[in-house]
Design brief:
The complex is a heterodimer of chains A (75) and B (340). With 75 residues, chain A is mainly α. Helices cover 85% and strands 0% of the residues of chain A. Chain A contains three helices and no strands. In chain A, helix 1 packs antiparallel against helix 3. Chain B has a two-stranded antiparallel ribbon with strand order 1-2. In chain B, strands 3-4 form a two-stranded antiparallel sheet. Chain B has a two-stranded antiparallel sheet with strand order 5-6. Chain B is globular and about 60 Å long. In chain B, helix 2 packs antiparallel against helix 3, helix 2 packs antiparallel against helix 8 and helix 7 runs parallel beside helix 13. Classes of the chains: A mainly alpha (75), B mainly alpha (340). Chains A and B meet through helix 1 and helix 3 of A and strand 4, helix 6, helix 10, helix 11 and helix 12 of B.
Chain lengths: 75, 340
């Protein structure tokens, strides 16, 4: 009777947060140097990509939650 | 940038003010609230004893005294922004303590707590950086950063509010989560915001003495919202947003599971199917009702009933684990940024 499942779940959340953070730093941040558009347009594009990335993170966490709850609570 | 002597003297002063103000004022507050009948039943105890509530005004007084002294010593605008945000969150919580408000009240009203951070930075400057600190580097997205502040503050406040389910959990959890946050602000933030974060740790330490199992007073919404909002405001002003989220993960997970279960923003009291049940020997057991929301406590007791104190310690163990993850993230950021 331990916390192993919860610890693994939280570690998974942490890994996914770091993965999204790395994606934003590696691929989204440099866009302002690559794209020819104006500062505002580039910022809007970066914001849109960042929001999509966070939505994907939430969907991923939601899927992970479903698997976890199914195993723990049978829900 | 402050010199070492100023850091030590100011740090000792604000820590002592917040700690001793709360430690010394709380017994009188407990007596005063009890004499006025401002108490609620402790639902997980035999005989359901009446526990005075809220402790928010005393916690706010201790933190405000420390932050006002710090502002007068440093005249740093970030300290003022953090204090004003915390005061607004306290006011929102105090309204919720005084009368029954709808479920959407707290998250919507807490948007106002983000205003001082945004407005003071806009008109004076120096409250927060322009970039989001993302462990592997910073991302400069001005269009995203301001709206993000309006997301972080209500989430931080409500997250601590939602984990205030058992004796001592909210205050103990804040103590554990604040340690990596302080470390991150010390490395990546400013000296003044680091000093502004000390009253959060010392206020929570002083309050824990009265809130720990068995509680002598409950924080109320005013107490939990101000602690959570102060935590969020410090993470923003101290360039430690992601580290702050990581240290809060068990509480974030609790809110996420609850919201995903009930699929709307409601108060816990509005949910008919309870996530846990109380056994005859006053232990917490997981509800077998499929309609009951999934919460952190329900998952902790799913393998078998546990006493309230034991559940609290297990939440602290999880908080300790996420504090280690936050320290690992600080280490990654430290070496990625080439500070090591």
């Amino acid at each position: 009777m331990g916390l192993d499942g919860l610890v693994l779940f939280i570690a998974g959340m942490w890994a996914m947060i770091l993965a999204v953070a790395a994606f934003l730093v590696i691929f989204v941040a440099p866009l302002e140097a690559v794209l020819p558009a104006g500062r505002l347009a580039v910022s809007a594009g970066q914001a849109a990509i960042a929001i999509v990335a966070v939505v994907m993170l939430v969907l991923g966490l939601s899927r992970m939650k479903e698997i976890f709850l199914h195993r723990k609570l049978g829900q | 940038m402050l010199d070492v002597a100023s850091l030590l003297i100011y740090g000792a002063a604000v820590s002592a003010i917040s700690f001793f103000a709360i430690l010394l004022m709380m017994p009188a507050a407990i007596r005063s609230l009890a004499s006025k009948g401002r108490a609620v039943p402790d639902a997980h105890k035999r005989d359901k004893p009446m526990i005075p509530r809220p402790a928010g005004p005393v916690i706010m007084a201790g933190i405000a005294a420390a932050e006002i002294v710090l502002y007068m010593l440093t005249m740093n605008i970030a300290v003022l922004a953090v204090l004003l945000s915390t005061a607004i969150a306290f006011a929102v919580g105090y309204v919720d303590d005084s009368r029954v408000m709808p479920g959407l009240f707290k998250p919507v009203a807490l948007l106002a707590a983000a205003v001082p951070i945004v407005v003071l930075d806009l008109f004076v400057g120096g409250v927060h950086g322009d970039s989001l600190n993302l462990v592997f580097g910073s991302v400069f997205i001005p269009l995203l950063y301001i709206p993000l502040i309006f997301v972080i503050i209500p989430i931080a406040g409500n997250t601590i509010n939602s984990i205030d389910v058992l004796n001592g959990v909210a205050s103990g959890f804040i103590i554990i989560a604040t340690i990596p946050l302080l470390t991150s602000i010390a490395i990546f933030g400013s000296d003044e915001v680091f000093l502004a974060a000390l009253p959060l740790l010392f206020a929570a330490l002083a309050f824990y003495r009265y809130h720990r199992f068995p509680s002598r007073i409950f924080p109320g919404d005013s107490g939990t919202l101000l602690l959570g909002t102060l935590y969020g405001a410090l993470a923003i002003a101290g360039s430690s947003e992601i580290i702050g989220v990581i240290a809060l993960l068990p509480a974030v997970m609790n809110s996420f599971l609850f919201l995903a279960s009930v699929k709307r923003i409601v108060e816990h009291r509005q949910v008919k199917a309870r996530p846990t049940i109380l056994t005859d020997d006053f232990k917490l057991a997981a509800s077998t009702d499929r309609a009951a929301p999934a919460t952190l406590v329900r998952l902790i007791v799913v393998d078998g009933p546990l006493g309230e104190k034991e559940v609290g310690y297990r939440i602290f163990k999880l908080a300790g684990f996420t504090a280690l993850l936050a320290f690992a993230s600080i280490a990654i950021q430290y070496f990625v940024l080439g500070l090591g």
